[in-house]
Amino acid sequence: MRIMGIDYGDARTGVAISDLLCSIVGSAQVVPSRNTDKAVADIVRLARENQVGEIAVGLPRNMDGTEGPRAELCRAFADRLREETGLTVVMWDERRTTVEAHNILSQHNYHGKKRKDTVDAVAASLILEGYLAYRKR
């Protein structure tokens, strides 16, 4: 079984998938998400193709731990994935993952369009890494 990490966004959604041992991130990519139905279908397909058994969706919280409108959208997206896949879908605190993703990309000289096309996949990887570390404990 593999675990999938999701960084849901309005335009792009980052998707990261663990290795078979659920110990490290094995792959990451971005799917377009302006059309929610298509994004859900793409993620469902990826989950099936990669034998995913569980999904961790990033939950954007404010720094004080409260949730805003974006968190509601992510919860609704997670509910759709739960319905479509029949898998366990957990919400994972994603505070600062996008900031961290931008820092990582800056350190590796990713700028402009190259960064824009990659940042969501890196954020999904960070969400998945955090969730995998939690599961190990």
What can you see in these coordinates?
- The chain has 137 residues and is of the alpha/beta class.
- The protein has five helices and five strands, in the order βββαβαβααα.
- A five-stranded mixed β-sheet has the order 3-2-1-4-5.
- Helix 1 packs across helix 2 (69-85) and helix 3 (97-107) packs across helix 5.
- The longest helix has 18 residues, at 119-136.
- The chain is globular, with a radius of gyration of 14 Å.
- The two termini are 18 Å apart.
Number of helices: 5
Rounded to the nearest angstrom, the radius of gyration is 14 Å
Q: What amount of the residues lies in strands?
A: 25-35%
Task: Determine the fraction of residues in helical runs and give it as a percent range.
Answer: 40-55%
Give the key terms.
single chain; 137 residues; alpha/beta; 5-stranded mixed β-sheet; 47% helix
Write the layout of secondary structure elements.
Layout: E1 2-7, E2 12-18, E3 25-32, H1 36-49, E4 52-59, H2 69-85, E5 88-93, H3 97-107, H4 112-116, H5 119-136
Parallel strand pairs: 1-4, 4-5
Antiparallel strand pairs: 1-2, 2-3
Summary of the model, kept short:
With 137 residues, the protein is α/β, with parallel strands linked by helices.
